[in-house]
Amino acid sequence: MAQVTANGLQFEVERYGNPQDPAVLLIMGLGMQLVSWPMAFCQSIVDAGYQVVRFDNRDIGLSQRIDARHMSLQRAALRHFLRMPVPAPYTIESMAEDTIAIMDALGIAKAHLVGASMGGMIAQTVAAKYPQRCLSLVSIMSTSGDRKLPNASWRVSSLMLARPPRDAPMDQLVEHYVKLFKVIGSPGFPTPPEHLRERMRNNLTRSYDPRGTGRQLLAVVSSGDRSASLKLIKAPTLVIHGDADPLVPVAHGVDTAQKIAGAKLQIVPGMGHDFAPGLLPILSTAILAHIGSSKVDLAA
Length: 300
Fold this sequence. Notes:
By secondary structure, the protein is of the alpha/beta class. It has one domain: Rossmann fold. Helix content is about 40%, strand content about 15%. It is built from 11 helices and 8 strands.
């Protein structure tokens, strides 16, 4: 583990494998720390001959918090529902700039970008805005942001916005997030309850700051529709989405693939909005096949 300075902020970064090997940059989603990329998944990519970089996004994990006032999530949700602009301390584009700056700090000229959920939005933005830095793109359980696409159910949205009291004991926090991930998780690849509980406890012990997650959510909402920028992406692209995703319905994955020229779409039966242990071989196989077939000149 190491702290690097990038885009004027401090980021917690982990790097695995030979730094001379092609880089696979993993970008995690809303409120999720770098440890949400399972180590077994990372190791499978390293074993295939790549270096892997995973990092905590701004406002989460061990990376720097953004000290900025902002409107409440309830007010932001109302403005979003009314299709009014939602101001935010930063945007998805700001987080894409973070990603490029982290690559610069590590001396990585180009990388295969793999983003999940909000991380997929960030990866899409990097691929569109900085095409010379992107060897290939994998967008997992993510979206173009098109407002015509179906929303999550009210139950799922309510759970996502709910927060335990600030002084809640660890056991209460763990049970809250276990409940959330049981709802948004993969029905075809159920995670054993004790495994899920242990993972949540480890994550919360490492770091817990719901205010940072709230600011990330504002960034997602304020950044709007990326449909036009998706048409600028030239990198070989794979879109992976579960047909049982209750948070970002599968139509979002279909739409994303349709808007990126030449993109491949892989719909995984029984996959929800998580990285269940049973999904890891499916995901790593698909990703390695994609980046392995992406013939891009590293020196160009």
